[in-house]
Automatic annotation (TrEMBL), chain A:
The keyword Heme does not apply. Its main location: membrane. Part of the binding-protein-dependent transport system for glutamine; probably responsible for the translocation of the substrate across the membrane. This is Amino acid ABC transporter permease. It comes from Geotalea uraniireducens. Residues 64-251 form the ABC transmembrane type-1 domain. It comes from the Bacteria. SUPFAM superfamilies: MetI-like. Keywords: Amino-acid transport, Cell membrane, Membrane, Transmembrane, Transmembrane helix, Transport. The keyword Hydrolase does not apply. Belongs to the binding-protein-dependent transport system permease family. HisMQ subfamily.
Automatic annotation (TrEMBL), chain B:
The keyword Protein biosynthesis does not apply. The keyword Acetylation does not apply. This is Basic amino acid ABC transporter substrate-binding protein. Residues 33-253 form the Ionotropic glutamate receptor C-terminal domain. It is found in: Cell envelope. It comes from Geotalea uraniireducens. It holds the Pfam family SBP_bac_3. Its main location: other. Residues 1-28 form the signal peptide.
Length: 262, 253
């Protein structure tokens, strides 16, 4: 066997890249398999056995809306709280630093479910906050602490030289932060913030304990009347899976766009 | 050294508990042991007392049945939401938890004979002046425990928003916080929260008379005829001996 007998070289050497880019991996990525599998399964179940599967699907849309509202409201509020907490954590002012650190340490040490109960029922004795608002506030309060750590890490990942360079150009500390450090750190913090978003979306199911009618609560209502526990929780699990997979893909695309603009 | 001492004494304690439990187990060997689930958040029918013991009308009643029919009961405190699913999954043999006998439930499970009759009743804050029935609360939210006949009753009224709670106590707490305008539950439970609880007495009132007539039954898995027969034998004996009246006086005034 001579070298000429080889019809195809073991390693392609030419103009193209040897390592396939992300989009070339093939049709059967785990994501596609999970997403379209779940979507297909839910459609199949609804068509094959309308009672109870289609009935369940018809029962939960308003719960879906509540889940979205809680998730989006909480994430926006958590971003604000997180940015403040993150900046507080790196502040050289001892008092601000202490308050921010205390907040992060306390919140991270208490389970979300306990915080929800606390803000809703315990504080409900003193301040009357509508249920949806208090669910959003409780979720945002909890996730704000985690976001704070993400922002802190993101800001600290920018080399010190950047700040020094900005200051030497005559910028104040605040200006340097706003125009030089934070824009750079956004790229760094975006992936972990995407993760937090997905985690918050899933954890929003905990607000069902506060009689807030989210997807899980709607499912439980359906199951408790029809006794179709297996079918209902199958649908609920698939619905959550489809939503989280959809958003993780969306976040992935966003990350790619932003890193491509580097 | 101290750690070793502690570990030894702990072991001794565990051993003591085991030997103490042994005669009890031998005693139970005479009759069948039946595991019964209850959601102990429904005073005065079933609740957890200050000593962490499950007590209430249903519990006393079940114990009386067990004594008459000759079996031993083991209680399992279970969340209401899923208490039926647990029975289907075989986690326990029966449920005694203020379960109303309804046609829908009878399709899925078997019931003992009814052991007490009760009705749903509406509780509102004292500030709600002219409310006489659920329909008077149109445009407002009314709470109930998820999957109860009280919740089903609210759902039937158009224009009233049903809020489902995991435990009835949370619904009353939410009404105290001003988030809902009424709570629907079984009459004895309503009386417990609205008339007996010190923190609610001044705030809540019961409206009118019960608007449903319901019977509680003990739930068993579909087709468990032997257990139904055993329970019914106990219920008949308890009723014949007038134990039920004593329990009514003790728990329901």
């Amino acid at each position: 066997m001579t070298a000429n007998d080889r019809t195809r070289p073991a390693i392609e050497v030419g103009d193209g890249a040897a390592i396939p880019s992300k989009s070339d991996i093939g049709l059967f990525t785990a994501w596609r398999f999970a997403f379209f599998g779940a979507l297909g399964l839910i459609v199949y179940l609804a068509l094959a056995k309308p009672d109870p599967y289609l009935e369940i699907l018809k029962f939960i849309p308003d719960g879906l809306l509540v889940t979205f509202k809680v998730t989006v409201g909480a994430i926006l509020l958590a971003l604000v709280i997180g940015l403040v907490a993150g900046l507080g954590r790196i502040s050289s002012n001892r008092f601000i630093n202490g308050v921010a650190s205390l907040y992060v340490e306390i919140i991270r040490g208490i389970p979300l479910l306990v915080q929800l109960f606390y803000i809703y029922y315990a504080l409900g004795r003193f301040v009357h906050v509508p249920d949806m608002a208090s669910a959003i506030i409780a979720m945002a309060f909890c996730y704000g602490a985690y976001m704070g750590e993400v922002f802190r890490a993101g800001i600290q990942s920018i080399p010190k030289g950047q700040m020094e360079a900005a200051r030497s150009l005559g910028m104040t500390k605040g200006q340097a932060m706003l125009h030089v450090i934070i824009p750079q750190s956004i790229k760094v913090v975006l992936p972990p913030i995407g993760n937090e978003f997905i985690a918050l979306l899933k954890d929003s199911s905990l607000v069902s304990i506060l009689a807030v009618a989210d997807v899980l609560r709607r499912g439980r209502e359906f199951a408790s009347e029809s006794f179709t526990y297996f079918e209902t929780y199958t649908v609920i699990a698939l619905v959550y899976l489809i939503i989280t997979l959809f958003f993780s893909k969306l976040i992935g695309i966003m990350e790619e766009r932003i890193s491509a603009g580097r | 050294m101290k750690f070793v001492q502690r570990a030894v004494s702990l072991l001794a304690l565990v051993g003591l508990c085991l030997t103490a439990a042994a005669p009890q187990a031998a005693l139970a060997a005479g009759g069948r042991t039946i595991t019964v689930a209850t959601d102990a958040t429904w005073p005065p029918m079933e609740m957890v007392d200050a000593n962490k013991k499950i007590v209430g009308f249903d519990i006393d009643f079940m114990n009386a049945i067990a004594k008459e029919a000759g079996f031993t009961v083991k209680y399992k405190n279970t969340a209401w939401d899923g208490i039926f699913a647990g029975l289907s999954a075989g986690r326990y043999d029966a449920i005694i938890s203020s379960v109303t006998i309804t046609p829908e439930r009878q399709k899925q499970y078997d019931f003992s004979d009814p052991y007490i009759n009760i009705g749903q009743i509406l509780v509102v804050p004292k500030t709600e002046g002219r409310v006489t029935r659920i329909a008077d609360l149109v445009g407002k939210a009314v709470g109930a425990q998820i999957g109860t006949t009280g919740a089903f009753a609210i759902k039937k009224v158009n224009g009233v928003e049903l809020k489902n709670y995991d435990e009835i106590g949370l619904a009353f707490e939410d009404m105290a916080a001003g988030r809902i305008a009424g709570v629907v539950c079984d009459e004895p439970t309503a009386a417990h929260y609205a008339l007996q609880r010190a923190e609610y007495k001044a705030k809540f009132k019961i409206v009118g008379k019960p608007f449903t007539s319901e019977s509680y039954g003990i739930v068993v898995k579909k087709g468990d005829k032997a257990l139904v027969a055993l329970l019914n034998k106990g219920i008949r004996a308890v009723k014949a001996k007038k134990i039920e009246d004593k329990l009514r006086k003790k728990w329901l005034r």
